[in-house]
Amino acid sequence: MDGDKAVAATSPFIVSGSCLCGAVQYSAEAPPRSVHYCHCSMCRRTTGSAFAVLAWWERDQLEWSGKFRVYRSSPIAERGFCPHCGSPMVLAYDGQSEIAVHAGTLSNPNVFPPTYHYGSEARLAWADCAMALPAKETRERF
Ligand SMILES: [Zn+2]
Ligand SMILES: [Zn+2]
To answer: How many angstroms is it from 125 CA to the middle of ligand 1?
Structure first.
């Protein structure tokens, strides 16, 4: 175990995060590949907010402690949430090597600002943050 700690201590980049209650935690040694807003209706509902902010990693880059529960949210994707406190944690498309973490669960989300909007066709009229960023429409809608 000491060996593991030494590796972690000397790693150049450690990212961590957790749900509200702390039962589900994760860490990564690399920054996310991308971070973006998602305005789709499913992200809106799962967060209970105007939009989600998603940070994408390769699945094997994330180390988990505690288990999230999985809900199939569409024919092509599943979402994971903390079974104890209900915090939305992840979005994963079937058969893809990447997984998105809800950026609000990061210990320091300020380090990874979103760089574009996704699902822009569904953006709420009053969700007028970061209007200068590029916007893409949802590819598949359910
Ligand atoms: Zn929790
Ligand atoms: Zn979405």
So the answer is: 31
- CA distance linking residue 79 with residue 72, whole number of Å: 6
Mean pLDDT for each 10-residue chunk of the chain (142 residues)? 50 88 97 97 97 98 97 96 98 98 97 97 95 93 78
Q: Which ligand is nearest to the CA of 18?
A: 1
Find out whether 17 and 25 touch, Cβ atoms under 8 Å. Answer: yes
CA of 66 to the centre of ligand 2 (A): 24
Ligand nearest to the CA of 117: 2
Which ligand has an atom closest to residue 137 CA?
2
pTM for this predicted structure: 0.89
pLDDT of residue 9: 53
CATH class of 2-127: mainly beta
Contact indicator for 114, 133 with CB cutoff of 8 Å: yes
